[in-house]
Specification:
The complex is a heterodimer of chains A (251) and B (441). Chain A contains eight helices and ten strands. Chain A has 251 residues and is an alpha/beta fold. Chain A has one domain: Rossmann fold (3-Layer(aba) Sandwich). Chain B has 441 residues and is an alpha/beta fold. Chain B has a domain of 271 residues. Chain B is globular, with a radius of gyration of 21 Å. In chain B, 49% of the residues are buried. Classes of the chains: A alpha/beta (251), B alpha/beta (441). At the A-B interface, helix 2 and helix 3 of A face helix 6 and helix 7 of B. Bound molecules: adenosine-5'-diphosphate and magnesium ion. The site of adenosine-5'-diphosphate has 12 residues of chain A, from strand 2 and helix 1.
């Protein structure tokens, strides 16, 4: 589904990703862990096509298509979704209007019929329930004045609505209390399917108690330095990132 | 109306053949004569004139506008179809090229104590009703375009509310411009008087049939009695080739409330002057504004809000979206007199620039002579935030649609202050359409 090879990228003239190899098959859930500043968000942004991230080498293909030449909206239309570490506030942009524009843009790009107002509303009400979100959210501006937890839940809510093929969750757990974490994890788990893959980026292994990954990767200084099963996450938790960094240096 | 004006505006005042000077009440003719002299005494403002520093009159003068000298009578109610806003239920007064058009107007049932319609008709029927009200607020020493309007004062819109009268449905004033063979200037004069405790909503719209070249120089006098409340939605959607001037002179008695929402989308050159005078304490004046300035379009706003008595509140909140070679001017003055303690004023002008070549000159000013006041002002000139754009695009939304959504989000704060849902939808749609055809650079 996703194949990344030898990916190097600069941000602000500084090399952040330094030869990253990574691949995800259909229905798989991969966790990426790593210390702050190791390049996790940079990787997520490069995959989604954010401006200002200069790819200098390597490739990234999504279902056989070259991702790196596509506009961000084209990637989303193909089925890529990024749940932001820091969801952006859009004052004045109504949430319902935004969700409808997003869903219909994606349907249109795929040549599917757009949803009318009634069936759209029915659909979002259903998805809201999954994330224990209140209807009033729909009347508000996108993320504007939302609490940290509401913002994260709103990201997963959007994912539930847009039904991507590959979702990247960038530290969706950070800043959530245990109850909110459970709601978010339940939402994510409800979306797991044999066709949908996920990349769960996290700093702590806590989230992985709720979302069971197939593979855990450790990212350090812009490179995957270790991959393994769930036990790798526990080992990291126990020994700390210093352990990995020391090994990374040695490698 | 004889005598040559030395400043290029002679043709604005060439005698209207249908209504030679002297027709109508003497007092009005005297006022016209005084105004004519005031016009004559003034020279054309130049870039050295403080109020006109950023706005040139050259393009306007080059057109050689002449006064409208014939009534358009061929229009049928059907011709209004494309102009009416679906779902807006109003008492409708239509003016065509500055003249009241009773055949197009639908006044509907009016309660006792409300007089609504054409100014000339009321002048003919009951001149005494206007004697103490017309040309009062605007003051004695009239600036050029006000003096021109007064010198040619002939017709317009009038709404008189007796004390404590309330009107449930909005009044809709449609000023329709129809192009003539020669470039014409219409100078409608509007008078709105709310007695003590009266309440009304007025929707004032400037529209055109076709994209013709003409000029509108409208003047509004609004007087609010004690405790009176007026919501005033103003939507300027003149033809893309038109010139538009508005002078709005507002007088507010104690405890009255005024909210004006100024939407400026049309005309190639538009200047709006909003002048507020508080006559009693605890009055509130809320001026909201949204303007779009597209390629080679000028939107020019001048605000003059004088807190001359204590305990009044004013808000001046203007937002602009500029693209192509669009230009805007915001010149806002809030002044607080020495005795006007506990004045509360907040002025803000925020601009969203969609192109490198657009330009805005913004000059908010506070002149405060009292010590116990709450006054603030702020101004911003910014661009669309790249992370906002990326967020929308990462959800599958195309870049042009994402930009439009962000612009409408920016504009939404002002649009939502309009009085009716049908109107908010209408304006959002118009803003969206203009942005859709806007060049991105
Ligand atoms: N816009 C930017 N300009 C310059 N440096 C950046 C920018 N964004 C991130 N970085 C740098 O890139 C490195 C990786 O950041 P990031 O990908 O956010 O790490 P992580 O998500 O793993 O905490 C950090 O050193 C950070 O300072
Ligand atoms: Mg990060």
């Amino acid at each position: 589904m996703l194949a990344v090879k030898g990916l190097r990228a600069n941000v602000g003239g500084k090399e952040i990703l330094r030869g990253l190899d990574f691949s995800v098959g259909p229905g798989e859930v991969h966790a990426i862990m790593g210390p702050n500043g190791s390049g996790k968000s940079t990787f997520a942004h490069v995959l989604s096509g954010r401006e200002g991230y200069e790819v200098t080498a390597g490739s990234a293909t999504f279902e056989g298509q070259d991702l790196l030449t596509l506009e961000p909206e084209e990637r989303a239309q193909l089925g890529l979704f990024l749940a932001f570490q820091y969801p952006v506030e859009l004052p004045g942009v109504n949430n319902t209007y935004f969700l409808k524009a997003a869903l219909n843009s994606i349907l249109k790009a795929r040549g599917e019929p757009e949803l009318d107002a009634v069936s759209f509303l029915r659909l979002i009400k259903e998805k809201l329930k999954i994330l224990h979100l209140d209807d009033s959210l729909l009347k508000r501006a996108v993320n504007a004045g939302f609490s940290g937890g509401e913002k994260k839940r709103n990201e997963i809510f959007q994912m539930a609505l847009l039904e991507p093929k590959l979702a990247i969750l960038d530290e969706t757990d950070s800043g959530l209390d245990i109850d909110a974490l459970r709601v978010v994890a339940d939402g994510v788990n409800a979306l797991r399917s044999p066709e949908r893959s996920m990349i769960v980026v996290t700093h702590y292994q806590r989230l992985l108690d709720y979302i069971q990954p197939d593979v855990v990767h450790v990212l350090s200084k812009g490179r995957i330095i270790r991959s393994g099963g769930k036990e790798l996450a526990l080992e990291l938790e126990e020994k700390g990132y210093g352990w990995i960094d020391a090994e990374g240096q040695a490698a | 109306m004889n005598g040559v004006l030395p400043n290029g505006f002679e043709s604005w005042l060439s005698a209207a053949p249908e209504r030679p000077a002297g027709v109508g009440p003497d007092w009005l003719d005297d006022q016209r004569r005084v105004a004519q002299e005031q016009v004559r005494a003034q020279s054309v403002p130049t870039s050295k004139t403080e109020d006109w520093r950023y706005t040139s009159l050259k393009g306007l003068l080059e057109q050689g506008f002449a006064q409208v000298d014939e009534s358009i009578t061929a229009l049928q109610p059907d011709d209004l179809e494309e102009i009416l806003i679906p779902g807006l239920d109003s008492h409708r007064v239509v003016l065509v090229n500055g003249r009241y058009a009773p055949e197009l107007s639908v006044l509907g049932d009016l309660p006792k104590g409300v007089r609504l319609g054409g100014l000339r008709a009321l002048l003919d029927a009951d001149p005494d009703a206007l004697r103490e009200r017309l040309n009062r607020i605007a003051g004695d020493r009239q600036p050029l375009f006000l003096a021109l309007n007064t010198a040619g004062l002939d017709d317009g819109f009038v709404a008189l509310f007796d004390r404590a009268v309330m009107l449930e449905r909005p009044i809709e004033l449609i000023h329709l411009s129809v192009g003539m063979d020669e470039p014409r200037v219409a100078q409608p004069r509007h008078l709105i008087v709310l007695g003590d405790g009266a309440q009304a909503t007025l929707i004032e719209r400037y529209v055109s049939l076709g994209e013709s070249l003409y000029c509108t120089n409208s003047v509004l006098e609004i007087s609010l009695g004690r405790d009176a409340v007026l919501q005033h939605d103003r939507i300027q959607m003149e033809s893309a080739n038109a010139f538009h001037l508005t002078g709005l002179y507002l007088s507010q008695d104690a405890n009255s409330r005024y909210r004006g929402v100024n939407i400026g989308l049309g005309a190639r050159w538009a200047r709006t002057e909003l002048v507020t005078r508080f006559r009693g304490e605890q009055a509130e004046c809320d001026l909201q504004g949204l303007y779009l300035a597209g390629d080679r379009q000028l939107m020019d706003y001048h605000l003059d809000v004088a807190h001359s008595v204590p305990r009044c509140t004013s808000r001046e909140n203007f937002k602009g979206i500029l693209y192509g070679k669009g230009r805007a001017v915001f010149d806002g003055l809030v002044s607080v007199a020495r005795d006007a303690q506990k004045s509360d004023a907040a002025m803000s002008n925020r601009n969203l620039m969609l192109s490198e070549s657009a330009e805005v000159d913004t000059k908010p000013q506070l002149e405060i002579n009292a010590d116990d006041v709450k006054c603030s002002h702020g101004t911003t000139v910014g661009r669309i935030e790249p992370e906002m754009l990326f967020y929308l695009r990462s959800r599958g939304i195309s870049a042009p649609l994402a930009r439009r959504m962000l612009c409408l989000g920016f504009a939404g704060e002002i649009i939502q202050t309009l009085s009716a849902e049908a109107l908010r939808e209408h304006v959002s749609e118009q803003v969206g359409q203009r942005l859709e055809s806007a060049p991105l650079n």
